[in-house]
Amino acid sequence: MAAVTSEVAQGAGGVVLFGSQAPADLGVQLRVLQAAAPGHLPPMVMADEEGGLVQRLANLDGSIPSESWMGANWSPAQVRAASYGMGLRMAAAGVTTDLAPVLDVDGRGGSIAQNPDATRSFGANVSVVTADGLAFASGLEAAGVTPVVKHFPGLGNATANTDLGPASTPPWAVEQGGPLAPFVAAVAAKMPAVMVSNASTPGLSTLPASISPVTEGALLGDRLGFGGLVVTDSLSASSISDIGLGVPAASVEALRAGADMVLSSVGPSQTASTTSQTISAITAAVAAGALPRSRLTDAVLHVLAAKGYLCGPASRWAVAARSQGGYWIASPDGRVSGVGAPWLGSPAASGKPVPSPVSSIVGTPDGLGYWTATGAGNVFGFGDAKWLGSPSAADQVLPSRVVAMAATRGGHGYWLATATGNVFAYGTARWCGSPAAAGLSGMVTPVVSLSPTPGGHGYWVTTATGNVYPYGTARWFGSLADRSTPLRGLVVGMAVAPAGKGYWLATSAGGVHPFGDARWLGSPSQSQPSHAGPVVAISAASTHGSNGSSTAVQAYSAFMVSPSLDFPSPTVTRY
To answer: Running DSSP on this structure, what letter comes out for residue 289?
Structure first.
């Protein structure tokens, strides 16, 4: 860890763990390492946990069979269960990202020295590779670990191991006939990240895929429509150096081609110099106009999205409390479930297209309806929730995805907030300002919530690292960013205290922080240190009575989500 601490302190996007025996105190070491990150923006912690011969943390997260064995002997459900259990243990150790599964179609076997896939592939059957590979990835996601499917556009039957020298795959005509299919399915399943290989594909590009604009930009991005994180295979590989590119120059080429995160693997003594030279090369390329600055901005947004910063842990689930008791929970594909609250419909059930994942659900003040909003700015109203407009209907080009929605006190209007701090008002909701309009559009951390004042004439906008921005009649009572105490987890939401004279901020790790007249009443992290899942939302209880009048109740509910193989089942802790 010491070899990369300086780079993490400078803002490195991620670290990769190598080896075969993880230290027993890995979690402690990783927390210390991540505390060095600027702005409380920790790096992605990655490992190659594929199963079989390729496992770095087997002594901590348990050994599982190789992908080739699983493909030949297990059903997709069994594969998913194995990766889910492993993922839970990875997450507990502080590892956030798995550079797996391998989606290459290759049944040759043999040694990794000759065949880079060998036992790492689920097999030679495209359908098996697709089903088992997506099951493996799905299990990791359910456990809270980001899967990275690899090696796009398919490394199966490559001529050599790219770590050891140049290699090529079968011709593009062959790749399109089957080996590309698992990756097409992964894109359709909205997998969060893809690793691109260092092999070339005859008939597609003469360059290694990791630095090829044709493979990364035209094929993966434009043709297949992948919008997640694009990661390179190690740019220290011989297949890259043998064509005359060191890590710094290859990084520039990879970013220009469409990669978002560049990986390299050098010895501890070379880490600092390689990183410094890479940063200098990228900076020089931007200054010379050889690498568009917009390409870097796009890459950063993809990295933040993969980390969960653009929409927080609630990107998979959104929760709305009901003043009469109970709550609704919405899944990203538009399904709504009521727990102690009436089910009034959902985009998925009504057959309405859900163009992007649902990011929020908000109940009407009287609890007889709700709105759901997607990241693309679509708003769907159910029950007595009237549709009052949306950015998508106005053909507005959103600068970033919608991450939060809030309704006015009377329920005749709502606000939508985007990750970069823009606020859109509809119906009777007054626009009172926004971080973006105030010149704060360059915020280091994205917005995660928007909370209106009880009177509806102002609102607070909060970011993932705990900055609070008040607008209109909303007063500023403090923020986590002003405290010297390191923030555990990301801020996932704000709940406003009665009469709007204070607020609570909740983090994904279960901490609740009060400001103003909001009293501290406890938090999941204190009372349940091993709670089942991350906190995804906080909602003040009975801030408004059924008649719309303010009450003096000091209470809140923290919503936690337990990883589930089916529709997510929320756990609620009330304080």
So the answer is: T
Give Rg (Cα) of the chain. 24
Only one residue has tokens 């996601």, namely 141
pTM of the model: 0.62
The CA angle 336-338-339, to the nearest 5 degrees, is 140
Q: How many helices (H) and strands (E) does the chain have?
A: 15, 25
The values of phi and psi at residue 350, to 5°, are -85, -5
DSSP readout, 315-335?
GS-EEEE-TTS-EEEE-TTS-
What tokens does 373 get? 């909003």
Is 68:121 a contact under the CB 8 Å cutoff? yes
Element (H, E) at 89: helix 76-92
Q: How far apart are CA 422 and CA 498, in angstroms?
A: 26
Q: Where are the chain's structural domains?
A: 313-574
Helix axes 247-257, 271-287, angle to 10 degrees: 50
Q: How many CA within 13 A on the CB side of residue 491?
A: 30
Angle between helix 181-188 and helix 126-142 axes, rounded to 10 deg? 30
Print pLDDT tens along the chain (575 aa): 888 999 999 989 999 999 888 999 998 898 889 888 886 678 999 999 999 999 999 998 889 999 999 999 999 999 999 998 898 888 888 898 999 999 999 988 888 878 899 899 999 999 999 999 999 998 888 777 899 999 999 999 999 999 999 999 999 999 998 999 999 999 988 899 999 999 999 999 999 999 999 999 899 988 888 888 999 999 999 999 999 999 999 999 999 999 999 999 998 899 999 999 999 999 999 999 999 888 887 888 788 778 765 433 334 567 787 767 778 888 777 888 888 889 999 988 887 667 667 888 898 877 789 999 988 788 999 999 999 999 888 877 677 778 889 998 888 999 999 877 889 999 999 999 998 888 775 555 678 889 998 888 899 999 887 889 999 999 999 998 887 666 777 788 898 987 889 999 988 778 899 999 998 988 887 776 444 456 777 877 544 333 333 344 577 877 765 544 344 555 777 78
- Is the CATH number of domain 313-574 2.130.10.10? yes
